[in-house]
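User: Watch each token:
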Amino acid sequence: MTGEKISLIQGAGGKAMMKLISDIFLKELKLKSAGRVGLDALDDGATITIGDKTLVLTTDSHTVKPLFFPGGDIGRLAVAGTINDLAVMGAKPLAMSCAMVLEEGFPMEDLTKITRSMDATSREVGCAMVTGDLKVMERSALDGAILTTTGVGVADTLVTDRGIRSGNKIIVTGTVGDHGITILAHREGIAVDVDLTSDVAPLWETIEAALKVGGITAMKDPTRGGLAAALNEMVSKTGVGIVLRESDIPISEPVKAIGEMLGIDPLQITNEGKAIIAVVPGKTEEVLAAIRKTKYGREASVIGDVTKDRPGDVVLDTIIGGKRLLESPIGDPAPRIC
């Protein structure tokens, strides 16, 4: 390890980042838990037990480029991302903090827009922004802005990403690949005459609707590395396999077209307004119906099954009739996407 340097790929959410976390953080941080779920669980958050209450805590940094993009900006991204990390663990978001690092010369107008966006997004789920911090670095020491958001919520029924069991059905709450493909197209200046928009959104209403039905065994937020990384992480923790039906995975036509143009698989790129939900068979249709009634769940679909066969693998039944292994990417195909 002596002489090794950090690379961009190690912060991209794929296999390289997971290895770094295991080799450094899980090894060197000895005190890793304050409740049922600690750092070593590598879930979307961790728990703190206070009396009979289970609090969920999560934190994330955001370095998206560009800061403003079709469908949102870094402010909406930061707030929605933290809300979603709480939601997929079954926690109602209660409060948030935000630490901002800005570059000297950052436009006041842009800062105002970002702050208003953060407020509007948090208001969607009633999650108050209660504290924060601000630092300014000299010009050229930073590319614009970095936002770090931390959220706390309370879970009446805690859900983790390792609860999937053989026989469960896999639901995704909407089209995949929207955020990553939108950012890439916008960043590269690709002119498109179709509606290509980030899916960034706070999902508590959608998740709450599913939880009220019941039968939820596991959930995951498919951000960096997309659907592929999230599902592979889930099966790696449980010793089961997943079989997906490519024909049932919702992908918009613009995302398919730009993905093919750029050579990027929409299943392996970031989402910022979707959740993966594993549910027992007897509740699947009821959960799906409840999700579809919510603002951000209208295009939800049952996309696969959890199986005892091929433990640790995610297998894709392709549209052309074959099968292929859907592997977690080594890193995200696009840096600074969230």
Summary: Residues 173 and 300 are 4 Å apart (CA to CA). The chain has two domains: 8-155, 169-325. The two ends are 28 Å apart (CA to CA). The first strand starts at residue 46 and ends at 50.
